[in-house]
Specification:
ADH_N_2, 14 strands, about 350 residues, oxidoreductase, EC 1.3.1.-, Quinone Oxidoreductase, Chain A, domain 1, about 20% strand, 6-stranded antiparallel beta sheet, alpha/beta, 2 domains, ADH-like_C, 6-stranded parallel beta sheet, disordered C terminus, Rossmann fold
Length: about 350
């Protein structure tokens, strides 16, 4: 082992963004890969998951997870292959789910790795519908949203990895599913491929009116991961005892100050009270990590039976633009997953 020399390219956080990240917030470094020591494995990144939570990890404000340190490798879920191993539980060629971040190679002590086998048919799925995005959709909708047949479910960012899965689960549960996405192409994808009943373009000038027309019986479940004007349009349509699973607020991740508009907090609080609405935020790993096997069993069955369409995965190389890499994670995408971050 260790006879072949490897070079590692990694993207590190050079400075903390103020607003949207720019190229100068990142720096690519390259150096030799160390030989794994006793009880360690050398991993080669094959797929990197790009997710909106990465923006929060660039900030040093208090949050549910520690920030990426300046000069530290950017975080990210990965599917990797074992290149060399001095660990009794892993052998070269094995595929694993890891958290190696934005780099070609990583040395791990094996803790936290999830085995995917020697020849998984679709290894990248472990970062999508069968991974963290799918788990987020599954637990948020079923445990907090608790959809019932005949109810109306509205899904923000409907073509992203989480939203696409939420909508499909909603259809399996017998809901009238209304998606919200940005642009005609994404809306067609949501209805024609994912099976949503309706999908609305939030860029439309009359979006709020379209949403009201699409939800004549009101809204029973709103899966929130965007915030902003979409939530403003949803709020007056919420039914008594509506449920709102809250997993993200993408529209505000790059904000540097509160929006310049009237304070709507009193209206929100009054609506939640009068209509007895349940609004609950959650962090998937911390709140539901103990239920991962339940999710894997049920979602695996749905995928095997063809009941869940797998959102498209982009396997193109990302080149050497860190800003381009992040911008893909900063918006609702039809695709999720990238090859390793080098060119």
């Amino acid at each position: 082992m260790g006879q072949q020399a490897y070079r590692n390219r990694r993207w590190v956080l050079a400075s903390r963004p103020h607003g949207a990240p720019v190229e100068s917030n990142f720096r690519m470094e390259e150096d030799d890969v160390a030989t794994p020591g006793e009880g360690q494995v050398l991993l080669r990144t094959i797929f990197l998951s790009l997710d909106p939570y990465m923006r929060g990890r660039m900030s040093d404000e208090p949050s549910y997870s520690p920030p990426v340190e300046i000069d530290g490798v950017m975080v990210g879920g990965t599917v990797s292959r074992v290149v060399e191993s001095s660990h009794p539980d892993y052998h070269p060629g094995e595929w694993v789910l890891s958290y190696s971040g934005w780099q070609d190679y990583d040395i791990s002590d094996g803790k936290g790795l999830v085995k995917l086998g020697d020849n998984p048919e679709h290894p990248s799925w472990a970062l999508g519908v069968l991974g963290m995005p799918g788990f987020t959709a599954y637990m948020g909708l079923l445990d907090i949203g608790q959809p019932k047949a005949g109810e109306t479910l509205v899904v923000a960012a409907a073509t992203g990895p989480v939203g696409a899965t939420v909508g499909q689960i909603g259809k399996l549960k017998g809901c009238h599913v209304v998606g919200v996405a940005g642009g005609a192409e994404k809306c067609r994808y949501a209805t024609e491929i994912l099976g949503f009943d309706i999908c609305l373009d939030h860029h439309a000038a009359d979006f709020a009116e379209q949403l009201a027309k699409a939800c004549p019986q009101g809204i029973d479940v709103y899966y929130e991961n965007v915030g902003g004007k979409v939530f403003d349009a949803v709020l007056p349509l919420l039914n008594t005892s509506a449920r709102i699973p809250l997993c993200g607020l993408v529209s505000g991740y790059n904000a540097t100050k509160l929006p310049d508009r009237p304070d709507r907090l009193p209206l929100l609080m009054a609506t939640l009270l009068k209509k007895r609405i349940r609004l609950q935020g959650f962090i998937i790993g911390q709140d539901y990590g103990h239920r991962i096997h339940e999710f894997q069993q049920e979602m695996g069955r749905w995928v095997k039976e063809g009941k869940i369409h797998l959102p498209r995965t982009d396997h193109r190389r990302t080149g050497k633009s860190a800003g381009g890499v992040y911008r893909s994670a900063d918006r609702e995408e039809l695709r999720q997953g990238r090859d390793s971050p080098g060119g």
